[in-house]
Amino acid sequence: MRDVAIIGAGMIPFGRRDEDTLMDMLAYASMKALDDVGLGDKSVDAVYVANMGGGMLQHQSAIASSLVDRLSLMPAAAETIENGPASGASAVKTGLLAVASGYYNYVLVVGGEKMREVTGWRATDVVATMTHPQAEYPYGITLPGMAGMFTRLYMEKYGVTREQLLAVSLKNQEMGTLNPYAHVEMALDRAGIFDLPEAVVNNPVSADPLHLYDLCPVSDGAAAVVICPLEMAKAGKGGQKSSEHANSKTPVLIAGFGQATDTQTLQERDDPTDLKAVTLAAQHAFEMAKLKPADIDVAELHDAFTILEIAESEHVGFFKKGEGGKAAVAGKTRLGGQIPINLSGGLKARGHPVGATGVAQVVDIVWQLRHELPKTRQVQKARHGLTVNFGGFGNNVLAFVLKRVEL
Amino acid sequence: MRDVAIIGAGMIPFGRRDEDTLMDMLAYASMKALDDVGLGDKSVDAVYVANMGGGMLQHQSAIASSLVDRLSLMPAAAETIENGPASGASAVKTGLLAVASGYYNYVLVVGGEKMREVTGWRATDVVATMTHPQAEYPYGITLPGMAGMFTRLYMEKYGVTREQLLAVSLKNQEMGTLNPYAHVEMALDRAGIFDLPEAVVNNPVSADPLHLYDLCPVSDGAAAVVICPLEMAKAGKGGQKSSEHANSKTPVLIAGFGQATDTQTLQERDDPTDLKAVTLAAQHAFEMAKLKPADIDVAELHDAFTILEIAESEHVGFFKKGEGGKAAVAGKTRLGGQIPINLSGGLKARGHPVGATGVAQVVDIVWQLRHELPKTRQVQKARHGLTVNFGGFGNNVLAFVLKRVEL
User: What is the pLDDT of residues A5-49, one digit of tens each?
Assistant: First the structure.
């Protein structure tokens, strides 16, 4: 495998973007990533688009081909990659392997989703289409419902408390106020949340024991990266068919990648609290990168529900089982702590436009490793980052270890 | 790039499969391909599923993860690849590059679509979701409508006749009667078709100048292949994490791959009869394989409409522009002719379950190159095959050159 680096990254603000179509958002994010690297459009060999709901929500298919036309990247190859909430990481992975193979040099990976054009239960229903078609969906289970049951089991087995869940929520919503790309820009009032009568009013139960502020919002958004062989990234110029790229930014190596699947239904797992696919995906990514959890300076974990940030922080090896919640309360996952997690605000506050999320996680880590963020959310001298993108309810998980390339 | 070979191939009969779900069909085809190679299920590193309409037609997403569970292939990686009618070839390409990169050894690629659960115009509408979301879809254009306009232009420019179109239809429906996997098993009565009053009765206009028998049917179906590094295919045994595979069948090398995109709308092309993406995709595939059109012994072209078989046979270089239709009438594209095309019956008779088609084309060529077919449709001593999978209306086209590996 050739080493592959990320040379461009871009994102548009997540949230409610009624004025933009899905194609608009994909195009805007793509242009930001292409502009970031100063790459002429005729240099793009292939485009991978991460999207889950285009057919169901926009009644549109073959959006990757449409995007290539919109961006005038013809005759670049194009495919759409779908893997539920992990579609974004799956598209980055597909680009990684395509460049690593030697067949392509410059690849654009963009993820996006427009979810706000349906309201209330319909968005929840679209997300629920990733559940088991016979054993789950017909019975009305939703992703928040699964997360509620998972949380209850995790509380019983490891003593996780509501306070620990809220510590994640408070941190991530606070970070959202510092991230101009975040959907949720409202800090939670710690006193208000912990004052019980207020909590009942302000933080109602969504899927017991999860409350409103334990869940990510339904968002529109898109994010994109440009990747190429590390050697070309270092040289700062294109291969035989490419013009030079500006390369003013520090390249970020995709040092490790791991992926694993698990049973689709929770009840078929020996221990439903054991997220085997998270453990395996992270292990494989660390092995490939020849790094260990303690080497990571900053992480973006898939906190669609607060419990997931806690559980993933344990399963990837940052904390022992049962210690992740305590670590959150103790501030160990905040900026300046042992391992800062979701300084972007995470899915909780940046939002979770399904196809965009896995790409957005990578974009935020790229910004961290380039030392480009304002100091309120920049990990000083960050060298190594981790992303975890969680598909289904942990039945298809992808992890990347990213590494700053010192030139 | 490592050389990559196809070591297993399987298909289920296309047609109306009311008794099967989409997941059933994907699982059946996968098992046929896995059985074909005698590969233990724990040896599969990754699964790529080609599907376009799962969200729109089955209200289901993340089907690749679901399939991995259904087949007990965990923790194998999984993604769904979508590229309209070229989704199948795009999934094969994704698998090819993933194995070529060195990251994976054994990869299962399966394509499937269940289209018959909607009736009449709804299937046409689902396919029309691949048209331009502003410039085409809202005006009611459909794929048959585009094909009709394209046919008229092609007739005017190159003198293609209705007789030439019918020659393709007659050949492919006749081949369908010889292929147990084909949806359409009815041979057309040559006399009846060319007898004008009968033709009006039996072959009504669909999208002038295209008639009913110029169009592929709406089908259910699935097809699958298993690929691995050529060296492992030759050795007949797995790598470090694999059990031995039986390898009783002749491996087929993916010798060449090419892909190109074009404008999404026909009217933006300098010459709407010029299928630039077909020409480029085939050229790239031939260059990579170090072969030329005259070296090809058998081809599967994307005849969703009869005009496309004629146009593609010219654009890939089998015939000069304007000669493809005459060649069809002269029998040059029949078994025993200069270049036998669509001996499977093609999309016209095998059917066109969208996500399955590109994989099915590859499966049929694999069978040809292994010399496994009954002599009524086997090209004797076939060594090289070509597939062309045509996405949108020629705005994303993929071609493979496949080569029999003599052991």
Answer: 999 999 999 999 999 999 999 999 999 999 999 876 678 999 999
Judge whether A84 and A22 are in contact, CB under 8 Å. Answer: no
d(CA A144, nearest CA chain B) in Å: 17
Residue B70 located in a structural domain: yes
Q: What is the Cα Rg of chain A in Å?
A: 20
* Chain A from 368 to 397: CB within 8 A of any B CB: 391-392, 395-396
Please report, in angstroms and rounded to a whole number, the separation of the first and last CA atoms in chain B.
21
pLDDT in tens, chain B (407 residues): 999 999 999 999 999 999 999 999 999 999 999 999 987 667 899 999 999 999 999 999 999 999 999 999 999 999 999 999 999 999 999 999 999 999 999 999 999 999 998 877 899 999 999 999 999 999 999 999 999 999 999 999 999 999 999 999 999 999 999 999 999 877 776 555 555 555 555 788 999 999 999 999 999 999 999 999 999 998 864 443 444 455 568 999 999 999 999 999 999 999 999 999 999 999 999 999 999 999 999 999 999 999 999 999 999 999 999 999 999 999 999 999 999 999 999 999 999 999 999 999 999 999 999 999 999 999 999 999 999 999 999 999 999 999 999 88
A and B: number of Cβ contacts within 8 A? 204
Distance from CA of A99 to the nearest CA of B (A): 8
A213 touches chain B (CB under 8 A): no
Report the CATH number at residue A88. 3.40.47.10
How far from B241 is each of A360, A396, B104, B105, B244, CA to CA, in Å? Answer: 33, 20, 10, 9, 10
Name every chain B residue with its beta carbon within 8 A of the beta carbon of A74. Answer: 260-263
Cα distance from N-terminal residue to C-terminal residue, chain A: 21
Closest Cβ opposite residue A79 in set B2, B83, B104: B83
Question: For residue A350, which of A163, A221, A158 has the smallest C-alpha distance?
Answer: A221
- What is the pLDDT at residue B208? 94
Structure tokens that stand for A204 in this block: 């109602």
| B385 is a domain residue | no
Residue among A59, A65, A96 nearest A80 (CA)? A65
Peptide bond between residue A144 and the one before it cis (omega within 30 degrees of 0): no
Q: Is residue A35 included in any domain, yes or no? A: yes
Hey, what are A49's tokens? 């688009």
Q: Is the peptide bond before B209 cis (omega within 30 degrees of 0)?
A: yes
Strands (E), A151-308: 205-207, 210-211, 221-229, 252-261, 298-300
Q: What is the DSSP letter of A186?
A: P
- Is residue A233 within 8 A of residue A5, CB to CB? The reply is yes
Q: What percent of chain A has pLDDT over 70?
A: 93
Give the residue numbers spanning the domain of B42.
Answer: 4-119+219-238
**C-alpha B326: how far from chain center:** 24
The domain tally of chain B equals 1
Distance, CA of B334 to CA of B168 (rounded, Å) = 9
Model pLDDT, residue B242: 45
Residues 6+ apart with CB under 8 A from A267: none
Q: Under a CB-based contact definition with an 8 Å cutoff, are residues B254 and B226 in contact?
A: no
User: Residue A104: closest CA among chain B residues belongs to which residue?
Assistant: B97
Kindly list the residues from chain B whose CB atom is less than 8 angstroms away from the CB atom of residue A109: none
Residue A104 in domain: yes
